[in-house]
Design a protein that fits this description.
The chain is mainly alpha-helical. It has one domain. It contains six helices and two strands. The chain has a two-stranded parallel sheet with strand order 1-2. β1, α5 and β2 form a beta-alpha-beta unit. The longest helix is centred in the middle third of the chain and has 13 residues. The chain starts with 11 loop residues before the first helix and ends with a helix.
Length: 115
């Protein structure tokens, strides 16, 4: 991962989840932020297969969809504040193709690299 730059990768999972947010102001703010990056083009077949694999090893369906999207998009790190997802990903990290972190943890890690 290049420490000097960070790039948002947007997948349909994020768009779908945000559209379900019941808080209109938050939904609209996130939609504006997400709109700054084009949606990654992912094979529906590959996405479906990897999502099913992740569900089979213990991830909830929507979490599996998010992780599969990140993996297939080529993300280095998948960021989440979902504590159960973070814990499950830590337990199953050897079966993932993307590193899972929380935003604060990633910022702390990056700040160590720059000092």
């Amino acid at each position: 991962m290049n420490v000097e730059t960070a790039e948002l990768i947007r997948a349909s999972a994020q768009v779908l989840e945000n559209s379900l947010n019941p808080v209109q102001a938050r939904r609209e703010a996130v939609a504006l932020w997400l709109a700054q990056t084009p949606v990654a083009k992912l094979s529906a077949e590959d996405l479906s297969r990897r999502t099913a694999d992740l569900i089979a090893i213990g991830f909830k369906s929507f979490d599996a969809f998010h992780l599969a999207s990140a993996e297939l998009s080529g993300a280095d790190v998948f960021l989440t504040v979902d504590l159960p997802l973070l814990k499950r990903a830590a337990r199953l990290s050897e079966k993932l193709y993307v590193r899972v972190s929380d935003p604060v943890g990633l910022l702390e890690e990056l700040s160590q690299w720059t000092h």
